[in-house]
Design a protein that fits this description.
Elements (H helix, E strand, L loop, with lengths): L2 H9 L1 H7 L7 E2 L1 H11 L1 H22 L4 E11 L2 E3 L6 E3 L2 E15 L3 H67 L5 H35 L9 E2 L15 H11 L1 H21 L5 E13 L3 E19 L2 E16 L2 H7 L2 E9 L7 H67 L5 H35 L6
Parallel strand pairs: 1-6
Antiparallel strand pairs: 2-5, 3-4, 5-7, 7-10, 8-9
Length: about 475
Amino acid sequence: MSGVKYILIVAMVCCMAGVQGQTAGTKLSLQEAVDIALKNNIQVKQSELKVETADINRKQAKANMLPNLNGDFNYGWNNGRNIDPFLNVYVNQQLTGSNIGLTSQWVLFNGLQVQNLIKQNSLTLEASKMDLQQNKETLTMNVILNYLQVLSNEDILVNLENQATVTKNQVERLEVLVREGAKGQYQLSDMKGQYANEKVAIVNARNSVEISKMNFCQLLNMPYNKDLALERNDAPMPSEVYAGTPEEIYRKASEQLAIVKAGGLRVESAKRAVKVEKGAYYPRIGLYGNLFSNYSSTTNRNIPGAVTDVLTDNYVLVNNVKSLVYSPRQQFTSEEIPYFDQMKNNVGSSFGIGASIPLFNNFRTKYRVEQAKVMAKNAELEKQLIDLNLKQQVDQAYANMLASYNRYAAFQEQYNEYLESFRANEIRFNTGAINSFEYLSAKNNLDRARLSLTQVRYEYIFRTRILDYFQGMLSY
């Protein structure tokens, strides 16, 4: 096999990598993968529910500014000695009674607790939205990294297959030369051993591809598909290092990253919680109103009937004769007043303004305020911890990126030198100037350099995506 032919194979590696995995099966773009992950991820759905819960709490806090209105109704039977709810006297009989009423209260002032609670819950809602955005960004980042991991493993597999193709061609060439007596058997054995090693490496690489695909599918919460193919949009390795300094990246991250915004919002929310608790020191002033009526089975009404003369104990003297006196008397019949008539007749109402002044409540308000202050201090520490971790992560990510870039430059130079060395050694081997050991040594050096170059290229891409994530500029 000529050196020119091998160089052509090497040049075709990138093209072959571009089509690797795009055989029959599902073809998935990075954008589609991110959409599927966001749709299927349970943690994202839980964050969405937390946002809904926070929004409900905010709406409830605003509704607390409205007056309440409650109705009550009862209907029951009493035996023995009871108070007649209509006559308000004791009766000793079976009694059926009923009450109905409406009650309303409207708080006018309670130390601005309601207003501060509304603001607190609004800040909590915004923090929950930032948490949701953070979960989405983190998931998107993981999808990108896993997507690139699959592509990286596919490229490594392509490189190994092309290496094996070169070795296989040499095996076939040596078999012919050995049969013709132009080469020794030991050289053929060396080459076959090299070919066997490369086939083992191909098996391991294929396993790595399938494992990375499985991990990718699991991240997307979708069934594993061995025929899954990922679209490629290979960008050339940049000629200059990633733009920006660690300080610039950190500043942008502090302004853009959702987790930082959420931390700041929680600090403000905790401060509002202190004001909510302090509001309990102030009087509670409000309006109240009641509308009520009742019914009693012992309540009757008299219906006038005929008028009759009734003999009385009185008399008059007529000619010194006592004559008894008759007096007219109205006759009445009694009947129970119907339920709805009583309810209509017994309607009453009351309204007014009331105040509740806190004098002493076992220091409950005092300690609740102190507890809220502790929670506010803890929220501030949590925010400081977020900022500190972010600064350290940015510094580490930038250092990793810079190291990857420098390693790529070194491996690129190494690869170019080994490529030229292999080209010369292949020509010498084909002409019999060197033995198989020297040839395989040059080939192995080139193969390792090519694999290292592929790996460090993807490593650099990984590192730059992390820096993109910190600056809120993930692209896919």
